[in-house]
Amino acid sequence: MPLYLSRFSYTPETWARLIGHPEDRAQAAQSYIESVGGKLHGFWYAFGTHDGYNLWEAPDNVSMASVALAISGGGALSSFETTVLLTVDETLEALRTAGQVQYRAPGAST
User: Fold this and answer.
1) What is the CA radius of gyration of the chain?
2) Distance CA 18, CA 24 (A)
3) Of 11, 15, 70, 107, which has the fewest Cβ atoms less than 10 A away?
4) Is residue 108 classed exposed, middle or buried when 0-12, 13-18 and 19+ CB atoms within 10 A define those classes?
5) Residue 7 β-bridge partners
C-alpha cells in the first residue's frame, strides 16, 4: 500500500480546546485511516512551520484523499498537506520511464 506524509497545523481555538481537555489525537487519526482500510504508522507533534506530522498507509489515493478531506473539513486545522511517498523501487522505475519521455522545454526549438 502507498505511504503518505501529512503535515498539519491546528487553529488557535483547537489548541485552546486541547489545553482545556488534553487528549491523544493519534488514536483519532488511527481510527480515521483504519475506516478506509489503511494504517497509521506514526503521529508526531513538532516545533516549526507545522504543528504535527502523520505517516499513513492507505489502499490508494482516493482512500487517503477521503480521510484528508474529512479531517480538513472538520474545521480544527488551519492547514493540512499530504505528500505521496514513493519507494526507491518506484523512483527507479520512474527514472527509467522518464528517459523515454520526449520532453521539450518551453520556447526551445524542436
Assistant:
1) 18
2) 9
3) 107
4) exposed
5) 53, 81
Q: pLDDT for 66-85, tens place per residue?
A: 999 999 999 999 999 999 99
Residue 57 confidence (pLDDT): 97
- Cell numbers 526507491: residue: 88
Q: Which three cell numbers stand for residue 49?
A: 512551520
What is the C-alpha separation between 19 and 12, in angstroms, rounded? 11
Position 110 pLDDT exceeds 80: no
pTM: 0.86
| pLDDT tens digits, one per residue of 34-45 | 999 999 999 999
Task: List C-alpha distances in Å: 20 to 14, 16, 29, 100.
Answer: 10, 6, 20, 57
What is the rounded CA–CA span in Å between residue 80 and residue 88? 25
Sign of the C-alpha dihedral, residues 11, 53, 71, 29? Answer: negative
Q: Please tell me the predicted confidence (pLDDT) of residue 67.
A: 97
